[in-house]
Please model this.
Amino acid sequence: MSLMRGKERAIAEAMARLTAVNPFLPERIANEREVLGRRFVKTREVWNVDTELGGLNPNLARIDEAVRELLPQLRERLAAGEAATDEELELYEELVLYALYAGYADDWFQAMARDADGKPHKVPAFDRFAADVRHYTDLPGFTLPSRRDPAFLFAYGYQTRRAFHHVFRQIYGASLPAARLRAAVWQSIFSHDRGRYRRALSDRMHDFTTLITGESGTGKELVARAIGLSRFIPFDPETQTFAEGATASFHALNLSALSPTLIESELFGHRKGAFTGAVEDREGWLEACGEGGTVFLDEIGELDGEIQVKLLRVLQTRRFQRLGETRERIFAGKIIAATNRDLAEEMQSGAFRQDFYYRLNSDWIRTPSLREQLEDHPEDLHNLVLVIARRLFGPDEADSIAEQVESWIEHELGPTYAWPGNIRELEQCIRNVAIRGSYAPPGPGTGRVTGGARAELARALVEAELDMDALASRYATLVYARTGSYEEAARRLGIDRRTVKARVDEALLERLRAEA
Model:
């Protein structure tokens, strides 16, 4: 007789697909529907911070209930000695892992909050966790297919909880570009195959350097921080502590702000007397970074060629030397780099080493522009403004400030404003409107301030978004607003005054006059 009967196998297979899929892609929601059937509650297309729902997925409780209904029955049959195929045991293991994660998610979140000071703290929940692992797996003739001990599973669950928190809470947006970014970060943490990650990759991901590219202001450091703060940290069951505090393991260095000598000192450390001002021995970030740590090199495109060679050696051999010293030291952590430069052009010009680029680019993430996100999902502007306002001004004033900012953007910048400064510019806009009641985006090159309807028209023209009718109407309106006379507008346009009058867009004209 089969271990799983009736619809049980279908539910178990659907749960296995759900736990294997990237949680931040639309496929996750499709898998939830498959598990729950009629009990599924329609929700957003992708998981994202939603200011109306508070970020909660209403189907999670229903999925937990489905697993709690099925898992004890399967365990009881295994305990009674019923036979199971290898495939059924793999499905059982996935159900066990899901039940453990759901049951201890709050304990891991509390551990994460305690670790905010950068120090490891005791996590007494492990004893209960280990007992639950034994309950589900210490059965006659049965061993989990992955053969991982409770300490590993506890550390893996803690990593999953941290990763979801950092990705979900730091990378906003309901658009598909934002969802794909969250999914790409999740892959950088766990790879695309969670089973393989548990079996063989959890202690090897530091060997893969991540390169983040994208326009300025698109959140490259947030992406790096989400990856760096979500790395696997081993758990010691004897001391009941993790090997290190999760928040102490991320070290960021902005290369564009430092001289080459200072960059070398910050990275590699130095010996006393190695250069003017080196008054004592100093440990660099590569040395301070532990096995679970991450060094983030922002603006990697600014790096001097000689230092590129030294870092290339670190990536190839995991070895380095302090400045002024011959002793070799080991780098045990992970490197994440970011740039807004076109490194292909930099390599072509000889400013960036090709061999260094290929070492950096074993894992690549591109951060989408705010323009791309809003073109895909215009409603995201409301969500982003409210989330940022809450962070900047607190929950009490956030709603009224967000309403003021959205109204100002709608009337002054318009729905097609390109946001060249991306999320950083949006945050600046929110600050300016909250403090001064307005925001003046800088025009390209001249230092002149532009915005509103004129900026909207210029962007639409450059992006080739207008058909001939729309172009004629908007340009006729612009010329009439500038001249104040149908006759003069007709003369400049070389058409009849009645045609000008017929072409003028009254709503656009009102906005142009308000900006004058």
About this structure: Residues 445-450 have pLDDT under 50 and may be disordered. Residues 221-368 form a domain with the Rossmann fold fold (CATH 3.40.50.300).
